[in-house]
Fold each of these.
Amino acid sequence: MADTPRPQLYGTAWCPKSANLADFLQREFIDLDFHDIEASQEAEFAVRNMNGGEIKFPMLVVGDAVMKNPKIDQLREVLRAKGLLK
C-alpha cells in the first residue's frame, strides 16, 4: 500500500460528480489530492493531457489507472487492486 500514491481527483468545486467521488473516498478513509481545473492551469493541462486536448472531468488517477468519471464499482475494483481498499 505504501508504494501506491494517493488518488488524484481532477474536477471542479461545483461538480456533483467530483464531490461524489471525493465523498466516497473520504467515507472509505482514503486520502486524496483534489485538483480544481478551474483554479489551476496545471490541473487543467493535466486533464487535457489525459483526454486528447479536451476538458473532461471528473478524472481520477490511482497509480497507473486513469479513469474518467468512474462508477463507484469500477473505482472499488481499482482501489482493491492497488491495495487501498479491502
Note: The first helix runs from residue 16 to 27.
Amino acid sequence: MEHAHLSLDMLARWLAGRLEHEDMLQKVVPHFLARCPVCRERYEEIQLLLLESGHWDEEVALHEGTQAPELFHRLTRHSLDEQVRLIEEDEELHTWGLCQLLLQTSLVTIRDEPAKSLDLAEAAVRVSRHLGDAYDRNWVLDLRARAYAYLGNARRVLGELKSAEAAFRKAEGYLQRSTSGNLRIEAEVLDLRSSLRRDQRLFDEGVRLADRALDLYRQCNDLHGTGKMLLKRAKILEDAGDHDRAIALLREAPTEIDHESEPQLFACARYNLLGTFSLAGRYEEADRLLPEVRDLFKSTAQPLDLVRLRWAEGSIDLGLGRIEHAEAAFREVQQEFLRQEMAYNAALVSLDLAALYAQEGRTGDLKLIAAELVPVFESRDIHREALAAFLLFRQACEEERLTAEMARRLATLLDKKGWRAGVGTE
C-alpha cells in the first residue's frame, strides 16, 4: 500500500463522508500510515493496547488502558474487605481496563504468590459484574468468563479443587450465553480448565481439553498460546505416567515455538524435555541436553527457574551415580527454598535427599529428614493419598527399611505444581 494511491472514486467518497468503515480501515488508513512514521508509531501503540486490554474498541483501549494503573493502585492498596466495598460503591472502578489489569496481574502472580493471585481474580470478578451498557453485552460475557476462569485457576493452585470446579462452571455458563464467537477466550478457558483436570487426576479429560484449546489457539494464529498449550499437554501426559508421549511432544514443540520471538517459551520447552527425560530415567539424554538449557536460561530464566535447573542437575547427577554432586545440589536448592520461606518446596527436595540416603543406606540421615518433614505435613491441607504415603514413609524411616522408590513415590504425589519437571505450564 505504500506506493499505491487512492482512486478518484474512493477519495471522493471519503471526502463526502460516505466511505464504508471497512474500506477506510483497509485502504485509507494504511495508505497514510505508510507515509507518516509518527502516526505509524502511534497506530502500533494503539494496536498493542488493544491486544493488552482484550477490547475491540480503540478508544476504550486507549483511555481505559492508560487509566487502569492508577485505578489498580487505588483499589489494591486496601485490604480485601475494603476492596469489596470500594468496588460496590465507586463507579469509577467499573471499567474494562481495570478488570483486565487485575486479570493480567493475577496470571503473572499465580505461580509464586497464589493467594495474591486469588484476591486479584476475585476483585476482577466483582468489577466484571458492574460493567454495564457502555460495553457490548457479548464482550462483557466473555470478560466475565475469563474472570471466573482465572478465579478457578487461582483456587486450583491453592488446592481448593471443589470451589475451582464451581468457578469454571460459571465461566462456561457465561461463554455459552455469549455470541461473540471469540475463539481466543474459549481457548483460554479450556486451557486453564485442563490444568484443573490434571490436578484432579482426570488425565484423559485433561488431554481432551488441552487438544481443543490447542486447536482453537491455532485457528486464532496465536503462536504463544499454541506453544504454551503444547507444553501443558506434555505436562498432563507426564503426570499420567506417559513419559514417552510427553517426550515426543516436547521434541516436536520447538518446530512450533519460534526461538527469536518466544525465547522464554522456547527455553521452557527445552527445560521441560530435560525434566521429563530425568523422570523417565533417561539420564544420559538429560545430561546431554543440560548445557543447551543452561545457555538458554542465561537470558530467559527468572531466579526461581535457576533454582529449578539446579534441582534438575542434582536429579541427573543422582541418576548417573554422581552421589556427592547430587547431594550438594539438593542441599543447595533446599537451603535456597528455606531462605525464601518456601517450606513446601524445600520438603520436596528433602524427599530427593531421602531417596539418595536410602540408596546409600544412610539410615541416620533418613531419620533426620523424616523429622524435618513433620511440620510441613502438620501445617498444610495435604490430600489424603499423599498424607497416607508420608505416614508410611516416616514409619519406614524409623524402622530403617525405607527404599528410594518409597521416597520418590511420595515426592510424585506431592509435586502437584510441577516444580520438579515443568515451567510454563501453570
Note: The mean pLDDT is 83.
Amino acid sequence: MAGKEAEISGTLSAGARNSSERHMVDHEAIPDRDLLQRFCGGDREAFTALYRAHFPAVFRFVLYMTGDRMCAGEITQDVFVWLVHHPGDFDPQRGELPAFLGGVARKLLHRRQQVDRRWLPLEEAALPKAEDGGAVLVAGIEMRQDVEELRRAIAALPERYREAVVLCDLQEKSYQQAADELGCALGTVRSRLHRARELLVRKFQWKKEGQRC
C-alpha cells in the first residue's frame, strides 16, 4: 500500500510542479479523453485533474460496496495506480471515463473478495418477508437510519444486488447508465434493484421488530 500511495503521490506532485513552472491551464474544461491523451504525452498535471475529478465518486462507490473505509481507500488508490499504467485501455467510443473507472474498481473488488471473506452475503432466507414488497426506496431508509449502519447493510447484500443499489440509489445513475456500466440488460438492473431494496427493507423491518421485543 505504501508503494502505491508513493506512486500516486509522485504523479500528483509532478503535476503540481508542472503547473507552477508554466501558466496554469484550465484542465477542468478539458474532456476526460483529452486529459488522458495529454497524460500519455507526459502532462502529469492532466492526471492530477483526472484524479481530483473522479477520486470522490470512485471512493464512494467502493465504500458502499465494502462498508469499510480503509479497504475503500486502498482499492480506490489501486484504481488510479492502474490508470497510471494503463491509460491507453480507456476507449471513449465505448463509454465515459467514470463508467470505465467503475469497471476497474469492480474487477479489483472481485480480486479482493477472493482472499477476504469478511463480506458475508445477506442471506435472503434468514429474513421475514417485507410487508411492502420492497417499495420503500433506499433513500428513505438512509433518512431514518444511521449512515454507517446502512453502509454495512448494503455491503452485506449479494454482489449483484449491491452493485445495482449503489449505482442507482446512491450514485443516482439512470437504469440505462447502470446497465451500460454493468454490461447487462436494463430489465436485469430493474429486477436486481427491486430485490436489493426489498432485502434492505426486510432487514430494517426485522431489526425494528426485534428492538420492540
Note: The CA atoms of residues 54 and 98 lie 7 Å apart.
Amino acid sequence: MRHWRGYFLKVHPLVYLALCILFLSAAVIYAYIQLFALRNQVLSLTSNLASTTAALATTSEKLALGLSTVDQKAAELSSTLSATQQKIVETQSGVESVRTQVGGFEQQVGAITTTVGTLEKLSKTDPELLQKYSKIFFLNEHYAPERVSEIPKEYLYDENGSEVIHAQVWPYLKMLLDAAKNEGVTLYIKSAYRSFDEQKALKGAYTVTYGAGTANQFSADQGYSEHQLGTTVDFITTGLGGQLAGFDTTQAYQWLVAHAHKFGFTLSYPHNNTYYIFEPWHWRYVGVELATYLQNTNNHFYNLEQRTIDEYLVTLF
C-alpha cells in the first residue's frame, strides 16, 4: 500500500492538487450555503421583528387611543358625578329647607291647634269657678253647677244625710279621701254644695243663734258663699263630737295642709285673712296647678289678683 501511495503521489500530483481544490471548493460551497441559509434566517427574523414591531406600535397606538378615551370617559364620569353630588347636596338642602318649613308650619299648626284647644276648653269651663266670692263677687239665686255628683254615703260624716258636689270636682275629691284613708287618716265630708236658698236659710239660722255680727264672721251671705259653686267642702273627722271647732288640732287637718294641693284643693280662709275667721275645715277646689302654685309659694287664693287667678282656668280640670 505504501508503495502505491507513494507512487500515486509521485505520478499524479495534479490529481492530488485537483482533489484538494475540489475539497476546498466543496467546503466553500457548503459554507456559502450555510451562510446563505443563515442570511435568510436573519432576514426572516428581521422581517418578523419588523412586523412584530409594527404590530406592537399599532397596538401601542390603539392602547394609547384607548387610554385617552378612557381618560376622557373618566373625566366625563367625574364631571357627571360631581354634578350629581351637587344636585344631591342641593336636593338635600332643598329637602332640609322643606323640612324646616314643614317643621315651622307644623309648629304653627301645633300652636294654632293648642290655641284652638285652649279656647275650646275655656269656652266649656265655667269662669265663675275661679272667681273671688266671699264679699267680693256675687252669685245670683239662679246660679248652680252645670252638673253635680252625689257623694257616696261612705264618704259622709252623716250617713243619713245627702251631699252633692260639682261633677268634675268629684273625681279629685274622691282621690283625696281615698289617699287619706290609705294613710290611716280619718276624713269625712261635713258639707258640700249649697244652693242660694240653702245658704240664705243657713245664714238666717246662724244670725238668730249668734247674732248678725258674729254670724258675719264665719258665714257668708247668700250669693257670696263658695259652697254655691259646688267646688267647696267642709271636712270633719272623728273625736270632735260632730263639731268643726278644733279641726285644726287634728291629724286630718295636718294631712290636708301637706297633701290637699296634690288633688287641687286649697284652704280658703287661713289665719289672718280679711274675710272670715280662720276656717281650717273649709277647702275649695281650684285645680291642681293653681293649688300647687299656692302651696309652693306659701300664698293664698284671695291674696292673688283675679287676672292672675284667671290664667289657671284652662288647667282647672
Note: The two ends are 156 Å apart (CA to CA).
